[in-house]
Amino acid sequence: MRALDRKLWRDLWHLRGQSLAIMAVMASGVACFIMFMSTLDSLLQSRDRYYSEHRFAEIFVPIKRAPEAVAQRLAGINGVSKVDTRVVAPVMVDMEGFHEPIIGTITSIPDSGEPKLNRLYLRAGRLIEPGRNNEVVISEAFAEAHQLNPGDSLHVIINGKREQLRIVGSGGSPEYVHQVPPGGAFPDYERYAILWMGRTPLSRAYDMNGAFNNVVLTLTRDADEQAVMDQIEAMFKPYGGVGAIARKDQSSNYILEQELAQLESLSGIFPMIFLGVAAFLLNVVVTRLVGTQREQVAALKAFGYSNLSIAGHYLQLIMLIVLGGIAIGVPVGATLGHMLSEIYVEYFRLPFLDFTLEPLRVIQVSLISIVAGLLGTLAAVRAAVRLKPAEAMRPEAPAVYRASLVETLGLQRLLSTPTRMILRNLGHKPVKSLLSILGIALAIGIMMTGQFQQDSVYYMMHIRYDLSQRDDLTVVFNEPKSRRALTELVSLPGVESGEPFRMVPVRLRFEHRHYRTMIWAMEPGSTIRRLVDNDLRVVEPPAQGILLNEYLANHILQVKAGDKVEVETLDGRMRKASLPVVGLIQQDFGMTAYMSLGALNRLMQEGELISGASLYIDDDYANEIYQKIKERPAIAGSLIRKQEIKNFHRTMDQTMLFWTSVATIFAVIIAVGVVYNSARIILTERSRELASLRVLGYTRGEISYILLGELALLTLVALPVGLAFGRGLCGYIAWTVNNDMYRVPLIVEPSTYAFAALCVLLAAGASGLLVRQRLDKLDLIEVLKTKE
Amino acid sequence: MTHSSPTIVFQTINITKTYQMGEVQVHALRGVDLELYQGEFVVMLGPSGSGKSTLLNILGGLDVPTSGTVRYGDQDLSTFNESVLTRYRREHVGFVFQFYNLIPSLTARENVALVTEISAHPLPPEEALQLVQLGERMDHFPAQLSGGEQQRVAIARAIAKRPNVLLCDEPTGALDIKTGIVVLEALAKVNRELGTTTVVITHNVAIADMADRVFSLSDGRIANVTENTHKKSPAELSW
Predict the structure, then answer these.
(1) Interface contact flag, A400 B143, Cβ < 8 Å
(2) Does residue B84 register a pLDDT over 70?
(3) Contact A695 B91 (CB under 8 A)
(4) Which of B230, B217, B166 is nearest to B51 (CA)?
(5) What is the pLDDT of residue A122?
(6) Checking phi first, is residue A538 left (phi over 0); if not, alpha (psi -120 to 50) or beta?
(7) Cβ of A398 and B97 within 8 Å?
(8) A512 touches chain B (CB under 8 A)
(9) CB contact under 8 A, A785 and B98
(10) What does the pLDDT read at residue A784?
(11) Is residue A785 predicted with pLDDT exceeding 80?
């Protein structure tokens, strides 16, 4: 080994604490990048394989009812490749011993078992066999939730008729990666079932013999999707078509896409912060190293080492630290990525995970890290190269200090001499002090993002379930009913009160922009279910015209109050009307339009109809009420508020806890990295002063004050900066994850600020103590005998 | 300075100091007996490795002997623990070093205040600085002072607490002769006007002429003690 290489390794060993701290910060950035990217790549790859192997359809067409013969005409449309007609029916599932209503969606598959499109994967058992009418395949998630196995039987109520079915298999389909009950917001595998039955028995049970009510199809490579969809819509208009849905808008796929997009946007920001901090730390350490080694550099140059080999020497040291960070970060990131992917796969019911760590990602993150490392240390290495041997042989000129700002304000009398030292030291290298503050502030900010997501989502939940949807039970009819249905419900024992609502799927159009959504109508003055905006104000549905969700109005339709939007109902009748927008309502959830019940019923011209009811019930009667609901064929679904809240918490625990933990750990690493490095540098720079003070009779406690006081001041100044930065970062995240499903409000609870501040203070305190221990080992005699 | 009724400040009895330097044992002191009297100006001479710095560090409470006894007045320094030694340094000892060891972020006055703030009956920093003829440059930072001036600030800082003993390790080692003499004059003045027992260690034989007594150290022992019947003033010295 060359002597210079030996020096390299010894320097690295000498700097091991600081090098490790920098490696850890760098590794956090690398791990963060690899975690997000490997998750993204793996999910995309798993999704693509699932979609393609299981022939996920490209266009989905729900209709009322069409004779099978119509399907032939579909195949004739230019651009259509494969077509599958199906019967899709809402069902109630009755599980013995399970009181609450279970709703389900049952989809037909050919009697022979294998559909052309949206093929099933089987986790257990087999597909149905021809001629056996009572066989059913159930979703894996539902099977797990109720511990159902092939061979078990199941009661379903289809079209009011109770049928006993035998489970032959469990699995899933690309159509249902995200299984959320209609009207619900979160997966509930206990109360929502996806089922598949043979076409013949299902048609018989659902009165669809020789007909279908759902078509899925794929397109040829060169097809014009919109043109095909327009033709299909026209073709199915007479059959109660409600419009064709492209794959990108298919609800399950849409949610998956939104989630992946969010993942991608997060993957951009966090690794950059970490690598930025790591670059700064490298800069601080290498600058200091070159400073303390200036005489060595001079000697090397005097011996005839070239500038290039001097630069190379320091660059090697930097690269060793960077490579160390990459070497730690990649496997950690891959492990975290695998864990995160598993969470997503579980959440999205993907049948398999093709976990992949693309070499390209490793190359990308390595290049980014190396560039960050080089950019961070360029100035320090250049300083080493530019040292003139003769000059460098002489010790560095004593640093020039000035009175600190506080003192120039005339407050010096209030400050002890050690305090003045602290202030002047900080003011002496303002850029470095600022960067240290920034580094700690970044740690605080990252820490806050972990908690922030919970804060916002809990706030959204508060608006939704405490202020807006306050009913204990929401009941939805299979088709609009007269108001008598509400009277009947309210007369059930245990139902305290009830309010009606009507919802109609519509397409809203303004100029050339259009959007599929729902008009939700209720009576003005409703108290069980209310419209509550983001400022927690109760908004009444308008007696005339339509009230639009603000995001829908501003970002999608670009319509303002006073404009007229075209409404096209997607209920099979395709009624069209033009309605004035009477107002906008700011809401975090969904993209709904609102009307008063009377106004919507006037528009629909079907009389006084309601789609369902919001009920307050007496908990003691809950099971009896659930039983009555199960028995009523006219009820298509129900949502139990308490259960929805539970589903929410479960989903949160499953998905957000992971990021919260990872963000917290990474943020602690940054905080420790920054504070520990600052403390070590201060210790190196001040050890002579501190030793002098010890000799002059200062106690360890008193010199600790000077060392730790500087750190404490940096940390304290960083706190407000970090909390402000954290709020900004949370705002940025909220902004990037805004989508049609939800807008994340910028809600940061005091506890989040406090948690971040506390964690960083603890991390800073621990690093301070670590360095404080070194003070005890300060060799007073040795320090004083040597020139710096 | 009279020797008729000398008060003993320091008394060492057969002190030894052994260091472990890697795998080698270094015997820095091999049995030193000495007595230092109140108010005297002592120069310790000796080449590198003779043990003079080790002896100074032990007297100053920076180090403890491996064996033997060090008495300061009626106290036995060799039995003190770290925190008692710190208090001893704080209350009784002034140090001056070859490389000044001023705090660069503090002005001359503040460097002195650093010590007066933790002392019971200090001189005002201004007075200490005037004593070393630096009254005019009190608000300068170390970077704005010459080497000799920095060393005089260090002396002012050492004496401002009114120490009983002033220990100086090669105080002129980093200075040219002219500034060296100015610094020695400051030391002599402090010794004369405040009566502070002063120990200067050096390998510069010329400085011995301004001492009351001269100890020559060699190989960890006191080889020779001489008493100057006629002390020269620093201005008369040359090297």
Answers:
(1) yes
(2) yes
(3) no
(4) B217
(5) 93
(6) beta
(7) no
(8) no
(9) yes
(10) 66
(11) no
Dig out the tokens for A673 from the structure. Answer: 């990295």
Closest CA to A631 of A162, A32, A95: A162
pLDDT (tens digit, 9 = 90+) per residue, B22-38? 778 889 999 999 999 99
B118 and A698 in contact by Cβ < 8 A?
yes
Q: Which of A400, A414, A695 is the best residue to mutate to test the B interface, defined by the most B CB atoms within 10 Å of its own CB?
A: A695
**Cβ contact, residue pair A399, B63, below 8 Å:** no
Kindly report the three-state secondary structure assignment for every residue of A108-139: EECCCCCCCCCCCEEEEECCCCCCCCCEEEEE
CB–CB of B122/B168 below 8 Å?
no
Tell me the shortest Cα–Cα distance from A395 to chain B, in angstroms. Answer: 12
pLDDT recorded at residue A401:
76
Confidence label for B106 from pLDDT (cuts 50, 70 and 90) = confident
CB pairs under 8 A between A and B: 88
Neighbours of A686 (CB within 10 A): 22
Look at residue A371 in the predicted model and tell me its pLDDT. 92
- DSSP for A448-495? HHHHHHHHHHHHHHIIIIIIIB--SEEEEEEEEEETHHHHHHHTSTTE
Parse chain B into domains and list their residue ranges: 39-64+90-236
Q: Does B215 contact A at CB distance below 8 Å?
A: no
Contact status of A394 with chain B (Cβ, < 8 Å)? no
Check residue A588 and report its DSSP letter. Answer: S
Strand, coil or helix: what is A697?
coil
Q: Is A113 left (phi over 0), alpha (psi -120 to 50) or beta?
A: left
Q: What is the mean pLDDT of chain A?
A: 87
In whole angstroms, give the CA distance from residue A455 to residue A461: 10
ipTM exceeding 0.95? Answer: no
CB contact at 8 A, A526 and A538: no
CB atoms within 10 A of CB A365: 24
Radius of gyration from C-alpha coordinates of chain B: 17
B39-64+90-236 sits in which CATH class? alpha beta
Residue in B57, B98, B101 closest to A692 by CB: B101
CB of B62 within 8 Å of a chain A CB? The answer is yes
CATH number belonging to the domain at A495-617, selected among 3.10.450, 3.40.50, 1.10.150, 2.40.40:
2.40.40
Per-residue model confidence as pLDDT tens digits over A400-443 = 777 767 666 766 677 788 888 888 888 888 888 888 888 888 88
Which pLDDT tens digit goes with each residue over B161-190?
889 999 998 898 888 888 889 889 989 988
Whether B157 and chain A come into contact, CB under 8 Å, resolves to: yes
Q: Residues A126-164: pLDDT tens digits?
A: 999 988 889 999 999 999 999 999 999 999 988 888 899
Sequence ranges of the domains in chain A: 1-59+252-397, 60-251, 429-469+644-788, 495-617
Q: What does DSSP assign to residue B197?
A: E
* Structure tokens that stand for A634 in this block: 């006219």
Overall average pLDDT of the A67-88 stretch:
91
Parallel/antiparallel/unpaired status of strands A564-569 and A576-585? antiparallel
pLDDT at A516: 87
In the predicted structure, residue A711 carries a pLDDT above the cut 90:
no
Q: A416 — contact with chain B (CB < 8 Å)?
A: yes
Show the tokens assigned to A762: 């603890």
B142·A428 Cβ contact <8 A: no
Give the Cβ contact number of residue A161 at 10 Å.
Answer: 12
Q: Does A412 touch chain B (CB under 8 A)?
A: no
Alpha carbons A678 and A712: distance in angstroms, whole number: 11
A265 compared with A616, residue with greater pLDDT: A616
Model confidence at A396, pLDDT cuts 50, 70, 90, reads low
Output the pLDDT for position A406.
67
Which chain A residues in 665-724 lie under 8 Å from chain B, judged by CB atoms? 688-689, 691-700, 702
